[in-house]
Amino acid sequence: MSEAGVSEAGVSEHSVITEDGLRLHVTVRGPDDAPLTVLLSHCWTAEESDWHYQVSDLLGRYGHGIRLVTWDHRGHGRSDRAPEPSCTIPHLARDLGLVVDTYAPDGPLLVAGHSVGGMTITALPEERPDLVPRLAGALFVSTTGGDLHQVTLGLPAAAGALLRNRLPFVLASRARLLSRSRREQLPVIERQIAKRFLFGTPARPRDVGHVVDQLIHARPETMAGFFRDMMTHDRVGGLAAFDDIPTTVLVGSRDLLTPPPHAARLAGGIRGARLLVAPDAGHYLPFERRELVSSELMVLIDRALAASAAGTVATGQPGQPGQPGRGGGVRRRRPSGAR
């Protein structure tokens, strides 16, 4: 079940109802008969504007030659609040499947996920295996296949584990006890978290401010529920389902939430995947390294469009990436244990 409204030329905003009765906000750009649908799955505590730079860049490059779909995860943005027990990665994967069923019921798909958005994609072989044969490409950005319970935020093990386990609940408590306007006036903790743990260098003030605003608007059950579920996230064993699908894994060298070893393990579990490390970048690569993320998306899209035009399925290594712009230097690594 869905409802639609048109907000601007070529852009339609929709509501779709999940299996458990929640309304998801979805934005669709491009025609129904586009040769490729690109789905951008956002970060925990964010919403669809997590990808706003890439949306702008892709529209500038392809216009309406592709269909571009973004949405707010359950419990995020303009989607409904979600009960804490339903704030899980399997729920997100099934929600993604619902978005595909409703707005891209046939044709090739290219999926990109940032942080929990990437974890959502890793759950597709379990939750929606029927979608995997339709994948013409995948981009995993600052994400992981598991073992988040071992992350120490760049601190000594004991201190890092303590802080990791407390910060989400500190934010959730602030959201429960303080009004949004109060937190907007004094976002001291939210700003410190964003600057210290989410961004590398350089960090543009407008980008930090955007993320601080997202943290302020995040709901307490969203912060607590997804954190608990992410601590048990383990889908490395299912990554072979993505073998030979053109796949790129991006990570910042200073990512403290999903650090480079997590990206290497993710890439190493997918035959043919490429791993790119962005020096000095943190967890928010779609903001911090706009040109890199957009150019790598374009590499995958161009390959998928070429395969679609030829009537074949894109497989194997993507082509060489476009030249990244300012701040976009990358180190290319062969994943350890790559098959």
Question: How do the helices and strands line up, and which of them pair or pack?
Answer:
Elements: E1 2-8, E2 11-17, E3 23-29, E4 37-41, H1 52-62, E5 67-71, H2 89-103, E6 109-114, H3 116-122, H4 124-127, E7 135-141, H5 157-177, H6 180-185, H7 188-198, H8 205-217, H9 220-230, E8 247-252, H10 260-268, E9 274-278, H11 285-288, H12 290-310, E10 331-333
Parallel strand pairs: 4-5, 4-6, 6-7, 7-8, 8-9
Antiparallel strand pairs: 1-2, 2-3, 3-5, 9-10
Q: Output the number of helix runs.
A: 12
CATH superfamily of the largest domain: Alpha/Beta hydrolase fold, catalytic domain
CATH topology of the largest domain: Rossmann fold
Q: What is the number of domains?
A: 2
Tell me the number of strands.
10
- Low-pLDDT stretches are 319-328
Q: Summary?
A:
It is built from 12 helices and 10 strands. It is of the alpha/beta class and about 350 residues long. It has 2 domains: about 1-150 and about 230-335, Alpha/Beta hydrolase fold, catalytic domain (Rossmann fold); about 155-230, no CATH class.
Overview of the structural elements:
The chain has 339 residues and is an alpha/beta fold. The chain has two domains: 2-150 and 232-333, Rossmann fold, CATH 3.40.50.1820; 157-229, no CATH class. The chain has twelve helices and ten strands. The chain has a ten-stranded mixed sheet, sandwiched between helices. α1 packs across α12, α5 runs antiparallel to α9 and α7 (188-198) crosses α8 (205-217). The protein is globular and about 55 Å long. The protein starts with a strand and ends in a 6-residue tail after the last strand. Residues 319-328 have low confidence and may be disordered.
